[in-house]
Hints:
Blueprint: E1 4-9, E2 18-25, E3 38-42, H1 53-63, E4 69-78, H2 86-103, E5 107-112, H3 115-125, E6 131-133, H4 140-148, E7 152-155, H5 158-161, E8 178-180, H6 189-201, H7 205-220
Parallel strand pairs: 1-2, 2-3, 3-4, 4-5, 5-6, 6-7, 7-8
Amino acid sequence: MLKYIDIHTHEYYSTNEVISVYNIIIGQNQVNTEQNKYYSAGIHPWYLHSDNLELYFKYLSQEIEKNNIIAIGECGIDLLKSYLEISLQEKVFIRHVELSEQKEKPLIIHCVRAYDKIIYWHKKIRPKQNWIVHGIKPNEYVIYNLLNQGIKISFGKLVFIANDSRLHFIKKLSENDFFIESDEESYPFITQLYQKISEIRKQSIIDLQISQMNNFVETFKIKLE
């Protein structure tokens, strides 16, 4: 049965139409994970506190042992909203990268005005695991810089905000390069987003669903029933 893949959401919803990856923000929301659902877990840069980082990482290390936590993050670098020093944000980000490599799980990245730093660390570390910058602003130059480095991207609500004339490049992207996410939006936003992207790519929703499911299986090493 075809599904909508939603690789990053903060809204805990349940529907047979969607396979979602619910994000657990360590230190902010406590979730009793359900065996038949998928999750990511990480320390969001907005909520970094140097005095309890070790406690957060201890809890994170325990959480990611669960089989249905299929990704590390969201984590990353935010030059706009986080009040912490950039050096500390980068240190925390690198620790997430190390966990991603150790546990062989993809990394979900929150990045604001710091794409050059993400690209720098990807070049320096050369990770084996996939990195996915979530909620990407549809900026063709930035996106191709990330993709050329081997970093995947995920489109969210900003696709609706951007001028249509700036979205034409989306139809040229490889099916393996991008994901689709609802982030903080409620269901059925994800279905509306698929509709928008299918129109931009001049692709049927069914074909988009198939390609997203294949990308999900390959990237997250998931066997779908």
